Amino acid sequence: MSIEQGTTYTHEFSFTQDEVVKFAEVTGDKNPVHLDEAYAAATMFKRPIMHGFLGGSVFSKVFGTLFPGEGTIYLKQSMSFMRPMYVNAVYEVRMTVKEVNKEKHRANVETNIVDKATGDVVISGEATVMNVNRI
Amino acid sequence: MSIEQGTTYTHEFSFTQDEVVKFAEVTGDKNPVHLDEAYAAATMFKRPIMHGFLGGSVFSKVFGTLFPGEGTIYLKQSMSFMRPMYVNAVYEVRMTVKEVNKEKHRANVETNIVDKATGDVVISGEATVMNVNRI
Asked: Which of B23, B100, B117, B121 has the fewest CB atoms within 10 Å around its CB?
């Protein structure tokens, strides 16, 4: 898919607790707030929250495989973790292309993750990607 | 570990291709530049590169489990992917505390990943974390 200024792309996703456990194993990020129900119950979140980086990794998935897809090189990503993310909740990545540099094949993209049930933004941020064939 | 202005914390790490495959499975980020040797050989990288988000996830691991560790809540992270990262190479997270707000229990931390063999920064960025007991 080609990327043009003003284009908005959305992609729905959800993670399971099993996937959170696998993410913790691969990355080594075994913060108990993600893994231990009893521990999480005593925090302000009341139940385990997802790793922010697991949520944010969906930006990378979208850029690398969907929008613009094959050939994408990731240059920058910022993320503000606005609200906790929970397993089995349905989220949507919402990306809006802010600026395109066709000569350098680069685009700046606003990247948000929205809780489908509440409409709340849970991660907000911005990315810069390069794709020689699609930007 | 408590966090004070000016403190530097380092943590060495390395990933295997097996871990890259697992990360691709969990996150859904199956960009072939990370997974397909023949595909990667035809790119400017010549061989598969790691997901930037897998490299960056080590920031989350360090904050959540080591520095400052237990109880850390991630508020912000920016990342510039300066150079490709490769499996089996040895990298080091280098974090320097830039600003501490004891009242809000928050710290701004410069977060870099350095290739141990070359000294090159491969990911540069900045984070904001909160920890009620350790900041």
From this structure: B117
The DSSP secondary structure of B93-123, one letter per residue, reads EEEEEEEEETTTTEEEEEEEEEETTT--EEE
Number of CB pairs, chain A paired with chain B, less than 8 A apart? 116
Q: Find the domain containing A31 and state its range.
A: 8-130
Residue B92 sits in a domain of what CATH number? 3.10.129.10
d(CA B98, CA B108): 6
Query: Is residue B113 assigned to a domain?
Result: yes
Convert the pLDDT of each residue in A108-135 to its tens digit: 999 999 999 999 999 999 999 999 999 9
Nearest to A75 among B19, B56, B80 (CB): B80
* pTM summary value: 0.96
